[in-house]
Amino acid sequence: MFLNHRDDNNLVEVLNLTQLFDPFKDTVEARSHAGEELQDPAPFNKAELNFPSGEPLPRCWTNPTYR
Fold it and tell me: What is the pTM of this model?
């Protein structure tokens, strides 16, 4: 799944969707798609990610107390 990194507006490919959907995880393993070379996987803070359309991530993915 591709998301947008808010700070530099680059696309980020999420490699582990289970981490993305888990509200108890603050980071997700992903690969930045900036430049021509394939980047190494790195942890990205979920608070800095949103959908390419500009919408934020659902609260049930980020807030463990959401009901």
Answer: 0.86
Question: pLDDT, tens digit, for every residue of 8-45?
Answer: 889 999 999 999 999 999 999 999 998 888 899 999 99
Number of domains in the chain: 1
Please state, in angstroms and as integers, the Cα–Cα distance from residue 44 to each residue in 8, 14, 67, following that order: 13, 9, 25
The structure tokens listed for 60 are: 């049930």
Which stretches does DSSP call E strand in the chain?
2-5, 11-14, 27-32, 42-45, 49-50
Residue at 67 is within a domain: no
33/10 Cα distance (integer angstroms): 7
